[in-house]
Amino acid sequence: MYDYIVIGAGPCGLTLAHYLSKHNKKILLLDMNEDIGGCHRVKRVNGRITEHGPRVYIDNYLTLKNVLKDMNTDWTDIFTPYQFSMNDTMKELFEIMTLKEIYVFAKQFIKSYSPSFIDKTYTMKQFSDTNNLSIQLQIFIDKLCRTVDGASIETMTIYEFFSIFNQNFLYNIYQPKLPNDKGLFKIWKEHFNKNITFIGNSKVVSIEKKGILLENGKKLYSKNLLITLPPVSMLNLVTNSFDKNILGNYDDLKEFVNVSKYLTYIPITYHWNNKIDLPNINHYNTDWDIVFVVLSNYMELFYDKSKTIISVSIKNVNSMSKHINKTPNNCTKEELIDETFRQLKLIYPYLQKYDEAILDPNVYRNNNEWINSDDAFINTGKTWKYQTKYPNVHWIGTHNGNSTHSYTSMESAMSSAVYWLNKECDLNIVSDKMTTFWDIFTYILLFFIIICILCIT
After folding, report:
1. What average pLDDT score do residues 31-41 get?
2. Where are the transmembrane segments (predicted)?
């Protein structure tokens, strides 16, 4: 029998399996997808990559760095510097703001990190309305919220918004050197030790009294069950299980899931067989708020027939295209691909017709709208504890509120796993502490206070 069944082979589940297996625990790692990586995995269609992207990685991902070190792998073996930084985004933001708006932002930033600040549910929309921010600024903030963390101006909290700036301002952004199935997760899988058994294409459909039930009808048993699914997927699992109140009140869970679920993104990956020289562009306003990364400007594509790859994501599925007079939710698959490419050509006018365009295989049509089964958690200031009614069943992830990062990312998922391992298994995993903008601000403030005291005395 296994010591632990871990449901979900994303960053959180992989981190749990990595450290528990190092301590001689037998792990069965399950995922509904064929391979590991969760939202960060690469899927291939006709040999070409597609992803839930575009993605960025930041060098304050200290838990990831520690795991890579365990695998005798350096950060720079996997990642290469991204051309843009958090500073570029902040510069764009300040160019839009008036002096008054800069003042209210600075005042709120200080307030948000003061000991007396307790309302972590206060949204960017509430902040904008209270301070009469300009419509232009609110539109930019909304686009920024959709880009950085699957929220909108209505759902992203002021605390999370400032945390993204505060925690990342002093660090650099990176892109993978290789597609993740040939780089990061290939190395990770190669370092699975004999204590880890991974089974892909294994969807868990219910939690039973003495185990779990797979979609294929097979039942599995272990001493402990660790579930690392995001809230929407967890609700679906609990709904089909023997005890709907396993996590607590079922109606409360439904409400929690409703307020903390990711906005729907529609990723499309465009491929060309030839190499095209394309400049890196950070932001560009389009009708559907598309974001994109020219992956081939960063990746070594030795293994791929595609020599130019652009990863694109539609961030606003309810926004109208002025060209076809449709929202993404009104479009067929073909219309999505064609209209997104048209918007991409506004950015790169000389871009030739692609050889293949791939809609993310996890995107599907339901009730006249597009759904992405790669769901995630949005920090709205509300959390859900990992403990359940049963001492051997835990639900672990960013939603617990125990991560080092205050927004959803690979690192927030991995650090949530480390918190659980230290708390419940006494593993004493130590990570370096990242330096934040607030740290620098307080050091400078303290310095001036000391200088003033010395001058007075």
Report:
1. 93
2. 437-456
The per-residue pLDDT for 275 is: 93
CATH superfamily label, 2-41+181-262+378-425 = FAD/NAD(P)-binding domain (3.50.50.60)
**Which percentage of the chain shows pLDDT scores above 70?**
99
Count Cβ atoms within 10 A of the Cβ of residue 413 and give its class: 0-12 exposed, 13-18 middle, 19 or more buried. buried
Question: Domain segments of the chain: what residues?
Answer: 2-41+181-262+378-425, 86-171, 264-372
pLDDT at 118: 66
Examine the pLDDT at 410 and tell me if it is beyond 70.
yes
Q: What is the DSSP string of 109-122?
A: HHHHTSTT---TT-
Q: Which amino acid is at 257?
A: V
Nearby residues of 26 by Cβ (< 8 Å), 6 or more positions away: 1, 2, 3, 4, 195, 197
Angle between helices 231-239 and 250-260 (to 10 degrees): 150
Max CA separation in the chain (angstroms): 78
Dist CA 41 CA 35 (whole Å) = 7
Residue 79 CB-half CA count within 13 A: 19
Cβ(130)–Cβ(104) below 8 Å: no
**Residues sharing a CB contact under 8 Å with residue 9, sequence separation 6 or more, in sequence order:** 17, 29, 30, 31, 33, 35, 36, 37, 38, 198, 200
pLDDT number for residue 320:
95
- pTM for this predicted structure: 0.94
Q: Kindly list the strands in the beta sheet with 266-272, ordered across the sheet, starting from the edge strand earlier in the chain.
A: 290-294, 308-314, 266-272, 356-359
80-89, 110-119, 214-223, 297-306: lowest mean pLDDT where? 110-119
Query: Using CA atoms, how far apart are residues 406 and 436, in angstroms rounded to an integer?
Result: 12
**Structure tokens that stand for 113 in this block:** 């990190």
Tokens at 242, concatenated:
């023997």
**How far apart, in whole angstroms, are the C-alpha atoms of residue 314 and residue 286?**
10
Q: Rounded distance, CA 351 to CA 401, Å?
A: 44
Q: What's residue 280's pLDDT?
A: 87
357 has pLDDT over 80:
yes
